[in-house]
From TrEMBL:
GO terms, biological process: asparaginyl-tRNA aminoacylation
Subunit structure: Homodimer.
InterPro entries, per database record: Aa-tRNA-synt_II (IPR004364), aa-tRNA-synth_II (IPR006195), aa-tRNA-synth_II/BPL/LPL (IPR045864), Asn-tRNA-ligase (IPR004522), Asp/Asn-tRNA-synth_IIb (IPR002312), NA-bd_OB-fold (IPR012340), NA-bd_OB_tRNA (IPR004365)
NCBIfam families xref list: asnS, PRK03932.1
Entry's localization field: Cytoplasm
Name used for this protein in its record: Asparagine--tRNA ligase
Domain Aminoacyl-transfer RNA synthetases class-II family profile: 131-430
Length: 430
């Protein structure tokens, strides 16, 4: 007997198959039971007739509870009114486990309750759609860089030093040394870029910011390309092409999931190059004109990013922030030494930053001075300085947070639904 996945059930029209899954819901109508089965690939209506299965099997179907696991054998037939256009005429049911009363019912539940039951909430249609889109975005990221000759070389999670700021590190004991959970794979990608030319790393990153905003997680995933012989303009172009490719891929393969989330697809269809670009100082002027009290030299927060990106119909690239606001490794603008050759890409509709990056310092003396200015331990960065001693070249890159990209593309209010098990401030369970 063929075991079929629900997403492929149409291939077996007129045939008998077995479907393995869980009971999403049951509806009774006299001598018929309508079971909605899910198997992770989709939903399928299974019709149980007392005449077809007999008294014992019909009684079994009557006592099935939500999320009970079972194997159902039956004949596939086309039915326009059924989910997916097909249904299963049940011949036999094998109960694997009768589920206890399911805590998540078809009623309004608070976010706190749902997060406590995240391990079960993942089974809902909404979470299913979000996480399938996340999968598509990740697949699109890999394909984009693979197709352009980049080499995937992942960076370590344990690091001996900070990448950006010592106040946002998770510290851990590494035998007789102190180690930190990585904030970014960028520094290591600079080393691999000097070996391979075009590289990217893709993995979890950790920030110990005590932030409870809708855009922050303590653990999130980043894809980070790094390119030798590249400058700021090159990675701005690369980021633009990258975002367009991801959105196009999701629209092509996950349109039904976007519709299930009631996402305004027309807004995503407008994501086309070129993206508008402005300098930091131009952005400050725009913000002040909109009534924001920001002063030149202040960093952008969520309010500023929302204001800048709220009315845009495509991502906005803001570049050349003050060097004082950026990490120690950022190259300065030759024309304005107080500005960094950096950029942020702000997603439209008020979603704010999804990409940050820029050009790195490639001169040994300049980098050493910057390390000292930031009071960083020179010994911990000896290997990083070595990259400027042996064949240093201009190089640049960026990082995109997967969860923020998912939130924007799905149209979500908060990043907590963009990853299977979010790690937030004061939230480590389950």
């Amino acid at each position: 007997m063929t075991t079929a996945y629900i997403e492929q059930i149409g291939r077996y029209a007129g045939e008998e198959v077995t479907v393995q899954g869980w009971l999403r819901s049951r509806r009774d109508s006299g001598k018929l039971h309508f079971l909605t089965l899910r198997d992770g690939t989709g939903d399928l209506q299974a019709v149980v007739s007392k005449a077809a299965v007999g008294d014992e099997q019909f009684a079994l179907s009557a006592r099935l509870t939500q999320e009970s696991s079972l194997k159902v054998r039956g004949k596939v037939r086309a039915e326009k009114r059924a989910p997916g256009g097909y249904e299963l005429e049940v011949i036999a049911i094998e109960l694997v486990q009768l589920a206890e009363p399911f805590p998540i019912q078809p009623k309004e539940h608070g976010t706190g309750f749902l997060m406590e039951h995240r391990h079960l909430w993942l089974r809902s249609h909404r979470q299913h759609a979000i996480l399938r889109i996340r999968h598509e975005i990740i697949r699109a990221c890999r394909n984009f860089f693979d197709d352009r000759g980049f080499v995937l070389l992942d960076a370590p999670i344990f690091t001996p030093n900070a990448c950006e700021g010592t106040t946002t590190l998770f510290q851990t004991q590494y035998f007789d040394e102190t180690a930190y959970l990585t904030q970014s794979g960028q520094l290591y990608s600079e080393a691999t870029a000097a070996a391979f030319g075009k590289v990217y790393c893709f993995g979890p990153t950790f920030r110990a910011e005590k932030s409870k905003t809708r855009r922050h997680l303590m653990e999130f995933w980043m894809v980070e390309p790094e390119v030798a012989w590249a400058e700021l303009a090159d990675v701005m172009d690369l980021a633009e092409e990258f975002i367009c490719a991801i959105v196009e891929r999701v629209l092509e393969n996950r349109r039904a999931d976007l519709q299930a989330l009631e996402r305004d697809i027309a807004k995503l269809e407008r994501i086309r190059p070129p993206f508008p670009r402005m300098t930091y100082h131009e952005a400050v002027a725009v913000l002040r004109k909109k009534g924001n009290p920001i002063q030149p030299g202040d960093d952008f927060g969520g309010d500023e990013e929302t204001l800048l990106s709220n009315e845009a119909d495509r991502p906005l690239i803001v570049h050349r922030y003050p060097s004082a606001l950026k990490a120690f490794y950022m190259q300065s603008d030759p024309a304005h030494s107080d500005l960094a050759l950096c950029m942020d890409v702000l997603a439209p509709e008020g979603y704010g930053e999804i990409i940050g990056g820029g050009q790195r310092i490639h001169e040994y003396d300049k980098l050493l001075n910057r390390i000292k200015e930031h009071h960083l331990p020179e010994e911990a960065f000896r290997w990083y300085l070595d990259l400027r001693r042996f064949g240093s070249v201009p190089h640049a890159g960026f990082g995109m947070g997967i969860e923020r990209a998912v939130a924007w593309i799905c149209g979500l209010e908060h990043v907590r639904e963009t990853i299977p098990f979010p790690r937030m401030l004061y939230k480590l369970y389950p």
